[in-house]
Every structure is written in C-alpha cells, then in structure tokens.
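Archive entry. Fields below.
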Amino acid sequence: MRDIRNVQMVGRTSDGRLVQRPLSGHLSVYLDFDMIVSVGHRITGCAIAIGTIVLVWFLVATASGEAAYANVSWFLRTPVGYLALFGWTAALWYHFCVGIRHLIWDAGRMYDLPTVRRSRGVILGATVVLTLLTWLIALS
Amino acid sequence: MTNAKGLKIDIMRSYLGRARGLGSANAGFHHWWVQRLTSLALIPLTLWFVFSLVHLTGAPYATVRAWAGSTVNATLLLALIAATFEHMHLGVQTVAEDYIHSDAVRLTLILAVKGASALLALAGAIAVLKLAIAG
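PREDICTED_STRUCTURE:
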C-alpha cells in the first residue's frame, strides 16, 4: 500500500482474502465510443499544448524582425509544418467542440445518454466541417 | 447528527482521514473554476484568433507585424495568451494526476509544465508588447 488513501480501495474476495480493488476496473471490461471521445479531449488538449510552443515562436519571431519571421514562415511551409498545422487545427476544433459540451454538462444539461450519443455525432461533424472550412479559407 | 457512541458527526469523512489531515485541501474547486472561466474566455478568443490567422495566410511580414501591433489585436492577443497558458497548465496537471502513478515523475512533470507555460506566456506577452509599443 503506497498511500493512506488506498485504505478506501481495500476490498475482500469471496474467500475472504484482502485485495486492492482496481481503479477504473471497467476499462478492462468494456470500451465504448463515448469513452474514446472523452479521452480524445485530453489527447487533443495535450497536442494543442505542444502547439503553443510554435505559437510563441511565431509571436517572438514577428517581434524580432524579418529574418526570424522568415525562419518560422519557412518551417510552417515545410511538409512537416503543414502536417502539424493541419493536426493542430483539427485538434483545436475538436477540443473546442468537446469543451463546449463540457460547459453545457457543467450547467446540468444534455447529460442523459441518448443526448450524449447524439451530441458526439454533432461534435465529430462540427470538427470536420470547421477544420475543412479553416483550411479552405486559408488556402483560397 | 451523532453516531452510536454519541460522537458528533459534522462531515462525512472517516476520523482517520480527518486526523491525518488528508482529503480535500479546498483548492480543487478553484482549479475547476479557473479551468471553466478560461475555457469560456477562450471560446470567442479562439474564434477571433483562427479567423485572423486564416486571413493573414500568405500576407507579407509588414502586414503581420502591423496586425499584431494594433492596440485592439495586441489586447486580444495578450488575453489569448493569458487564458491559453492558464488553461493549459491546469489541464495538463489534471491529465498527469490521473495517469501518472509515480509521485516523483508526476510532480516533476506538473512543475515542468507549469514553469514552461509561465515562461512561454511571458515570452509571448513580451513579443506582443514589443510589437504594440515599438510598432
């Protein structure tokens, strides 16, 4: 036992043996689409966090002068740069949509399962539309 | 309310937990609330920022510089930076606390992310101020 709080996690098997009850035991039993949507919010959040480094690089380069700006501009136009920007755009819109649903949930609305199942379709659809729209306008 | 031995029970916590001073440090709500406040602020700020960047794509350096340096845009950029990095370190902290079991690794990562987000926010803010003030 690592920590005094683990006292709450002690259970007893049917033959009376003391065991530590598993955390998130359901994960090994089932994994459904809503759980993937939920963990996707965390994964995209971490991806956007890495993207903020490039955002600050872009701002600092713009403030530093034309040569520094040319560097960041060059990087973002390499295949890796384009791929990263596209990934961040998609991650940002996904996190944006799921985040709004979280705020609605915090207000106590849309928390029943049928609505949750419907809203995930809206989230995925809105992510695709917003991402494509962003790139269509940017490249046009 | 009293229990079987006549002891007064004022909160639903074990006596051991209370005696050890563990449990809620009362900072959890503040963490949760700031995360929500920043997410609310980030809704319009993100829309504005992506809309602006999309229209700046392919623009010459002078245009980008003038855009970031205008008082309104610089104000919104500073707000975006503040809300983004506050939201970011709180979010990464939540993820780290949920998935990293080793105390040493978790604490190191959380502190590193908090330090990095503070430094990135400062660097971004100074860049924007430089553009806004120096023109």
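CURATOR_NOTE: Chain A touches chain B at residues 4-5, 7, 42, 45-46, 48-49, 52-53, 55-56, 59-60, 62-64, 66, 69-70, 89, 92, 96, 99-100, 102-103, 106, 134, 137-139 (CB under 8 Å).
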